[in-house]
Amino acid sequence: MKEHVVIIGGGFGGLYAAKRLKNAPVNVTLIDRRNHHLFQPLLYQVATGELSPADIATPLRRLLKGQKNAKVVLGEVTGFDVENRAVLLHDEVIHYDRLIVAAGAGNHYFGKNEWARWAPSLKTVEDATEIRRRVLGAFEAAERATDPDKIRAWLTFAVIGGGPTGVELAGALAEVAHETLKHDFRSIDPSQARIVLIQSPDRVLPMYAPELSAKAEAALARLGVEVVTGTRVTDVGPDGLRVSHEGHEDEIAARTILWAAGVQASPLGKALADATGASTDRGGRIPVEPDLSVPGHPEIHVIGDMASYAHQTGTPLPGVAQVAIQQGRYMGDLIRRRVQGGDLPPFRYRDPGSVATIGRGKAVAEIGRFRLAGWLAWNLWMVIHLMYQMDLENRVLVLVQWMWNFTTRGRSALLITERETPFAGIRATAEIGLKTLRETATLSRVRETNTMRRAG
Q1: Residues forming beta bridges with residue 57, ordered by sequence position
Q2: Cα 373 from Cα 445, distance rounded (Å)
Q3: What is the Cα 24 distance to its own chain's centre?
Q4: What residues does 249 pair with on adjacent strands?
Q5: CA-to-CA distance for 429 and 114, rounded, in angstroms?
Q6: pTM for the full model?
Q7: pLDDT in tens, 110-154
Q8: Would residue 168 show up in a list of annotated catalytic residues for this protein?
Q9: 97, 199, 261, 354: most buried, per Cβ within 10 A?
Q10: Catalytic residue among 50, 168, 217, 366
Q11: Over 70: is that where the pLDDT of 429 sits?
């Protein structure tokens, strides 16, 4: 019988591992609680209305439909039975011969999980559409407000975290406010919106060379983004946030706060660690062996954002898509070789470089010894992000949408589609007012009727 390889997670690592096992003498089961693969690097463009969710998400079954030895199970993993080599779902037990856990990472609020209510992060399609709702809803609420202080609060957007996600999100928000929506409202001027990027370290994009960080900060400033570095967020609430800088506390009145400050491995990491006796680091990642296996369990492998791999440089590899992609490919090749009685050398990560976009025609790139900024880096960023889209249809859709948006300086997905609106308070007040008007009208009719009766 063919060995059964179970893969948990349809992200970059899990999907690349599954596709690498095509035509291998194994059966593959890919488990994910969502039915699609999400191209997370472009998620911020969904949050700011440049792309629609379907442009960067592809059904897993479509991606694996030509792979006869692979099947997809839509379900949520609840635990592991390591002794019996089984993955536990809510309503099913799936046995494995080899297990690859690639469930990715979620947001990390550094012990302040209550902040998530007021400062959503950007990890899923649902997160992106919620952020889009809040951003567009803020402009709508400002349009209807009459108090200048409330208008300023609605038109203030705070992004916490100056890594690639925070920088890209802040730059896109500035373009939405200062260009796309500039002439769409009558009572407010969206170009007067204030976008604040708050970073705890002393510079944005700290993983890049200092000169590239400086160029990125200058590009953000030209877009109208206020970059505040060396500043720590101490509290987040419905009306704004408190920050601390060099011992001084300050308040920022912002009705829209977005979180891009930290990530943490999926909770499945702890569940797997408890089941196998492995340890986890501060980020919830499991330290793995040189072949990406869990210590003491050569049949279980952890890759991507859930794995802490420090054998190459002495420090864990970064939680970026390229690490997950290369580890997924390695796992597919390793399992294929081991099933056939062979083996592979330990995993080695080849850093292809890093690219981050700041806005239209603005980006920074660090590739080996080469450091680029501006137009050339931006074109490189586009090529890379198109190349790593898993579906040809999505590549075409994204390219056409980018070309149209670049030409028109517009955004085609500026829709508030969720039922909840930013006008809950306004609506409640209006409903009370209408109720009062109805009661007053009813009372007037009763009085008028009584008067007529007395007159008759």
Answers
A1: 38
A2: 73
A3: 33
A4: 244
A5: 27
A6: 0.88
A7: 989 999 999 999 999 999 999 999 999 999 999 999 999 999 999
A8: yes
A9: 199
A10: 168
A11: no
